[in-house]
């Protein structure tokens, strides 16, 4: 009989330790989920919504979350726990694969189909192991986009223009990809990519005749680099009241457009 109070005390102590451990795991998971979403192009409102839903599922009252383009702050007031995590500069504008994976995993957690430990483990694997599409596949996609927009915007179906739009866009995309991923020089990489397109058009304009049209080829070739998604997200951020992040995304989109445009313009006067 004298051992019962000690057993109850030990049980309560272990329970409290388990609860405290779960709270810290939840905090780390909220920060990591937000980091993955933001680093791969998600909107701030979506990130805040995901973290809030995680808190509701874990019965965290009055959870506070503040998200910027380069940092996330999460607070559990009742638990006296607040943490901030910086978001590294993005080297890709969008990785929908990771965003979808995080959203699916979050739905499983909020539906109580997986534990917080399982959620944290799978979230770490998403962050570390999900492969991006190969360079070859991305280049092929850029070539298809270029050909499609040549036909759609100019209604020109001359084989020479379609062929040059595809090959020029594919080469330029490979240059931008290597500069962005190996040297982390995204905007300079876009400038070099567009400069290479303009240089190819300069050569072709000297050796090719009608029906070749450099303007038509350029229109299609630059389409994979147009920051349409970035501009759309920027406008949506501003309309949602996230003025700081909205302005940041607009500047990013404008720098992208300026880098591409400058590379094209530099040599366009010669053909």
TrEMBL record:
Domain named Threonine/serine exporter-like N-terminal: residues: 29-267
Record key words, sorted: Cell membrane, Membrane, Transmembrane, Transmembrane helix
Localisation per UniProt entry: Cell membrane
Record's keyword annotation contains Cell cycle: no
Main location: membrane
UniProt family annotation: Belongs to the ThrE exporter (TC 2.A.79) family.
Protein name per Swiss-Prot or TrEMBL: Integral membrane protein
């Amino acid at each position: 009989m004298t051992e019962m109070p000690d057993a109850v005390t030990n049980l309560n102590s272990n329970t409290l330790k388990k609860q405290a451990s779960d709270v810290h795991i939840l905090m780390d998971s909220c920060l990591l989920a937000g980091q993955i979403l933001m680093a791969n192009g998600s909107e701030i409102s979506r990130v805040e919504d995901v973290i809030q839903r995680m808190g509701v599922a874990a019965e965290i009252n009055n959870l506070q979350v503040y998200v910027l383009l380069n940092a996330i702050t999460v607070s559990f007031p009742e638990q006296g726990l607040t943490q901030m995590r910086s978001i590294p500069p993005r080297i890709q504008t969008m990785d929908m694969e990771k965003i979808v994976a995080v959203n699916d995993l979050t739905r499983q957690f909020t539906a109580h189909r997986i534990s917080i430990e399982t959620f944290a483990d799978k979230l770490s694997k998403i962050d570390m192991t999900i492969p991006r599409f190969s360079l070859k596949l991305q280049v092929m996609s850029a070539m298809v986009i270029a050909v499609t927009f040549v036909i759609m915007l100019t209604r020109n179906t001359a084989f020479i223009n379609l062929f040059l739009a595809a090959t020029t866009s594919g080469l330029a995309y490979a240059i931008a990809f290597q500069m962005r991923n190996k040297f982390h020089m995204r905007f300079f990489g876009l400038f070099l990519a567009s400069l290479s397109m303009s240089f190819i058009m300069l050569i072709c304009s000297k050796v090719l005749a009608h029906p070749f049209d450099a303007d038509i080829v350029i229109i299609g070739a630059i389409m994979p680099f147009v920051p349409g998604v970035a501009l759309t997200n920027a406008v949506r951020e501003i309309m949602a009241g996230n003025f700081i992040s909205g302005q940041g995304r607009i500047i990013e989109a404008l720098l992208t457009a300026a880098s591409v445009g400058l590379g094209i313009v530099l040599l366009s006067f010669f053909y």
